[in-house]
Design goal:
The complex is a heterodimer of chains A (about 350) and B (about 90). Chain A is an alpha/beta fold. Chain A folds into 2 domains: about 80 residues, 3-Layer(aba) Sandwich (Aminopeptidase); about 210 residues, Rossmann fold (3-Layer(aba) Sandwich), CATH 3.40.50. Helices cover about 40% and strands about 20% of the residues of chain A. In chain A, helix 8 links the parallel strand 11 and strand 12. Chain B has one domain: Ribosomal Protein S5, domain 2 (2-Layer Sandwich), CATH 3.30.230. The model of chain B has no long low-confidence stretch (mean pLDDT about 95). The termini of chain B are close together. Chain B is α+β, with helices and mostly antiparallel strands and about 90 residues long. The interface between A and B is medium-sized, with 17 and 16 residues.
């Protein structure tokens, strides 16, 4: 059977009829269709959908081929189409997040494995640049830090609070040096550039602390894709995979043997992430140090509490939860539009 | 020059992506192929000589080969080069 007489065409965003067809098609493969992708291509034979693939940023996803036509090179055709379209958008590096049993199919097409979380998921990449290049760059950025035990933290800091400060301060006291990676994915209310700056300003007095952008290999759209496996497995797959990437690649590149985290009493995903780290990281020789949340006004300090207080306009309480630098930023007239946006938002992030 | 690409991942084809580098960096060629063991050096040679003929000195070439013949490799590389230069 040949697929050569297939017609390939982009699926126009917002076309509900086509989206429904794709949703049904993907459901057969245990995949869900997230309409928030940047691009989707469909392959049709006699007007019937036989293969599909999407791209969201650098992540190629929802790649599925009609079982009767598998082994005919349709997967290669779908990938080629997606990669060529990505090139037209100036994207030359790609991730695929897939199940372990389908990974070899993509590896035969030039994709390389970054990490896996058995039995849930494998993260692959191809194109220009790789995790090895990224790690080389990271190692160069921490090469001048003092020798001796080194700790690492991955923080979102949305925004930077005295709670973050307390964990970093403790890490700085207990280790020769500390590397703080700030999550780069822009999905939080406070933009990445501002979050990064507030962390840098908030720990500027700690000489052995280096603050760096997290890059696309820590808590990113690639390591934390919000789709795929169902139900509770999603969280487990994502958190384990992210921990695997960190333990296998990032920690050795940074020379870090400890990872500090704040305890997580509220958010189920973050709590599960801490659990995944405690399971995975020791296998790579990285000790996980969990620090209880600091308390102010007899409640845990957290960025979500700060955002809640912004909505309540309680600036006296905010001033007790954040350092002077964050406070100045929040009160700056330049950021009044952002503050208004936060007040209007019900987002937890 | 700008980053550019040509070719596909289909059988008997090669996908070439190239990215200009700083002057003096030289030519860097990364090849991934299902026939790397037998033909890796031959593919490398075709790419290197085609770049030399085109007068390209500082470039990073990433090739994902699926059993392409020499003519295909050369054609895809020249197309990628053409796109890279047109984009500049």
């Amino acid at each position: 059977m040949s697929w050569q007489n297939c017609v390939e065409r982009p699926v126009p965003p917002g076309n509900k009829v086509e989206a429904e067809k794709i949703r049904k098609f993907l459901a057969r493969f245990g995949l869900s269709f997230d309409a928030a992708v940047d691009y989707t291509v469909g392959f049709y034979r006699n007007d019937e959908l036989v293969a599909v693939g999407s791209r969201a940023g650098e992540v190629l996803r929802n790649i599925a081929v009609e079982p009767a036509l598998q082994g005919e090179g349709l997967t290669a055709a779908v990938l080629s189409h997606l990669i060529q379209e990505a090139a037209r958008r100036g994207i030359y590096h790609y991730f695929i997040y897939t199940k372990p049993d389908t990974a070899p199919l993509f590896c035969a097409l030039g994709f390389k494995e970054i990490a896996r979380a058995e039995p849930y998921a494998v993260l692959l990449e191809s194109g220009l640049g790789s995790i090895a290049d990224h790690c080389k760059m990271l190692a160069a950025k921490v090469a001048d830090l003092p020798p001796g035990p080194r700790a690492a933290l991955v923080v979102n800091c949305n925004p930077f609070t005295l709670g973050h400060r307390a964990v970093i301060e403790r890490a700085a006291r207990e280790n020769a040096s500390v590397v703080v990676l700030v999550v780069e994915e822009d999905r939080s209310l406070f933009p990445f550039a501002d979050r990064l700056r507030l962390v840098k300003e908030g720990v500027a007095d700690l000489a052995n602390v280096r603050v760096l952008p997290g890059g696309q290999y820590v808590i990113s759209a690639a390591t934390f894709p919000a789709y795929f496996t169902r139900g509770e497995e999603i969280t487990k797959a994502q958190t384990r995979l992210d921990a695997e990437v960190f333990g296998k690649h990032i920690a050795p590149a940074l020379g870090a043997t400890r990872r500090y985290v704040g305890s997580e009493p509220y958010c189920a995903v973050t709590a599960s992430y801490n659990e995944a780290m405690k399971t995975v990281l020791p296998e790579y020789g990285v000790e996980v140090v969990v620090m209880p949340r600091v308390e102010v006004d007899s409640a845990s300090v957290s960025a979500s509490r700060v955002r809640e207080l912004i909505r309540l306009d309680d600036w006296d309480a905010i001033a007790r939860l954040v350092p002077e630098t964050t406070c100045r930023y929040l009160r700056s007239p330049e950021n009044s539009a952002l503050i208004e946006r936060i007040k209007a938002s019900q987002s937890r992030h | 020059m700008k980053t550019a690409q040509a070719g596909t991942l289909e059988s008997s084809d090669i996908m070439i992506t190239l990215s200009p580098q700083e002057p003096g960096d030289g030519v860097k060629i990364d090849i991934d192929s299902n026939v790397l063991h037998q033909y890796g050096e031959a593919i490398q040679a075709v790419i290197a000589s085609t770049l030399a003929e085109a007068g390209v000195k500082d470039v990073w070439v990433k090739a994902v080969d699926r059993g392409a013949l020499d003519y295909t490799i050369k054609a895809r590389l020249l197309t990628a080069l053409d796109r890279a230069r047109r984009a500049a």
